[in-house]
Amino acid sequence: MDIHLKHIHKQFNGFHALNDINLDIRSGELIALLGPSGSGKTTLLRLIAGLEMPTEGRILFGSEDASHKSVQERNVGFVFQHYALFKHMSVADNIGFGLSVRKGRDRPAGAEIRKRALELLDLVQLSGLADRYPQQLSGGQRQRVALARALAIEPRMLLLDEPFGALDARVRKDLRRWLRELHDKTGHTTVFVTHDQEEAVELADRVVVMSQGRIEQVGSGDDIYDRPASPFVFTFIGQSNILPVDVRDGKIAFAGHVLGETTEQDGSWHMYMRPHDLEIVGDDGPIRGPIAVSRRAGRSRFAEISLPGDSRRRLEVELPAEVTADPGLELALRPIRWTLYPAAKA
Ligand code: ATP
Fold first, then answer.
1. Among 242, 251, 272, 265, which residue's Cα sits nearest to residue 337?
2. Helices 91-100 and 139-152: crossing angle, nearest 10°?
3. Are 150 and 71 contacting, i.e. CB atoms less than 8 angstroms apart?
4. Number of H helices, E strands in the chain
5. pLDDT tens digits for 60-101?
6. DSSP per residue over 58-75, as a string?
7. Measuring from each residue's beta carbon to the nearest atom of ligand 1, which residues come in under 6 Å?
8. Which of 265, 318, 259 minimizes the C-alpha distance to 288?
9. What is the pLDDT of residue 47?
10. Could you identify the atom of ligand 1 that is nearest to the CA of residue 15?
11. SS3 of residue 286 by DSSP
C-alpha cells in the first residue's frame, strides 16, 4: 500500500507542529522519520494512523482519500516504544486480541485465532512462548510480541514509534537486524520513528529528516550523509566542523590563508566539513593550531584543533590511530572536501 501525504499542516492551539509536509511512500518501503525531539515525527505518524486529523492537507492510501477515515477503517498495525501488552493475557491472547474483538462474521473462530497467533509467534521467532505472560518476557521479546500483535490484523501498513527506544543498546541492535529481515519477508509498507541516526540509516530504505515541523531531506543513508540538502542535515547527521570563510574571486580564505577554490559568489560563507575531510599537511598548511584534546575511537583518533583568534572555536580531525596526538602539539591541516552554505543561512 503506498501512502501519499499532500500539503499536510497540523496545528495544536495555534502552534504549528507540522508545516506543509509532502511525502510519497512507496508500497513495501521501510521509511524512517528521523529528527530531534519536537520535530514532529510522532505527530506525522499519528496523522498517518488516524489518531490525529490534519488541520490542512490530504492523506492518500493508494488512490483512496483516507484523510477523514477512522483508525479502524485505516487498518494499520502499531507498535509503540513502551510495550503496551495486556498484562493479564497470555502471549497468544495478546497477539490474537485484535482478531478476537472483531464483530460478527469478521471474527474468526477461537481455534483459528490461536492458530494465527502461533504462526505469528513463529514468524517473530518466539515459538514456545505462547502461554507465557508479558512479565515473564524480556523487553526485546515483549517488543517482538507487540509486533506480532500488530501483524495479526493483517494491516495495510505498519507504523512503529521508537519501537526499540526503551531497550539497551545491544538488544536494540539485534532487533534492528531482525526487523529488517522480517520486513523483507512480509513486505509491509513500514514507517518508523527514531531519533537515532544509526538506526535510521541501518534499517530504512529511505530516511526522512525532519526539523521544526518540516521535512529537510528525503533520501538514502548515503544521500543524507554525503549530499546533505541543508546545514541542518549536515550537522544532524554525523560529525561536522563549521569554519567561517570569505570567498573572493573564486578563492576560499580563512584567516588570510587560501583553503581552496569555488565557483560560489563573493561573500561570507560557512564551510562544512566532516572530521575525515581534513588532512594533515607539512608546516605550511592553511589551517594551523595546537591540539586541545584527542580521543581514540576504534581504529581512528579524533583530535580537536584550537583555531587562531578564538581558542574556543575548534576543528575536529580524524587521524589514523597510530598518529600521536598529544595536547599542545601543533598541526597544520588542509580541507579536502567541503560544502559551502551562505553565512546568513547557516
Ligand atoms: P520526540 O522525539 O520528543 O517524541 P517528535 O519529533 O516526535 O519528538 P512530536 O511529538 O510530533 O515531536 O511533537 C511536535 C511538536 O508538537 C512538539 O513541540 C510538541 O510539543 C507539539 N505537540 C505534539 N502533540 C501535541 C498536542 N497534543 N498538543 C499540543 N502540542 C503538541
1. 272
2. 20
3. no
4. 9, 20
5. 999 999 998 998 889 999 888 776 789 999 999 999 998 888
6. EEEETTEE-TT--HHHHT
7. 12, 15, 17, 35, 37-43, 195
8. 259
9. 95
10. 30
11. coil
Sheet holding 206-211, edge to edge: 76-79, 157-161, 189-194, 30-34, 206-211, 214-219
Residues 6+ apart with CB under 8 A from 72: none
Domains of the chain: 3-236 (3.40.50.300), 241-342 (2.40.50.140)
Grid-cell match 507487540, residue found: 146
Distance CA 331, CA 275 (A): 14
Measured CA to CA, the distance from residue 249 to residue 247 in angstroms comes to 7
pTM of the model: 0.88
Give the nearest ligand 1 atom to 213 CA.
Answer: 14
Query: Which of these, 276, 300, 213, lies nearest to 8 by C-alpha position?
Result: 213
Confidence of residue 345 (pLDDT cuts 50, 70, 90): low
Cα 283 to Cα 330: distance, rounded to the nearest angstrom: 9
- The bridge status of strand 30-34 relative to strand 189-194 is parallel
Residue whose CA lies nearest to ligand 1 atom number 30: 12
**How much distance in Å is there from the Cα of 309 to the middle of ligand 1?**
41
Using one digit for the tens of pLDDT, what is the confidence trace for 87-144?
A: 999 999 999 998 888 888 888 888 889 999 999 998 888 999 999 999 999 988 998 9
Which residue's alpha carbon is nearest to atom 29 within ligand 1?
12
E strand or H helix that includes residue 117 = helix 110-123
Q: Which residues pair with 288 in a beta bridge?
A: 332
Other beta carbons within 10 angstroms of residue 132's beta carbon come to 15
Mean pLDDT of 326-330: 91
Write b or e for each residue in 90-117: b if 16 or more Cβ atoms lie within 10 A of its Cβ, otherwise e. Answer: bbbbbbbbbbbeeeeeeeeeeeebbebb
Main-chain dihedrals φ then ψ at residue 2, nearest 5 degrees: -85, 155
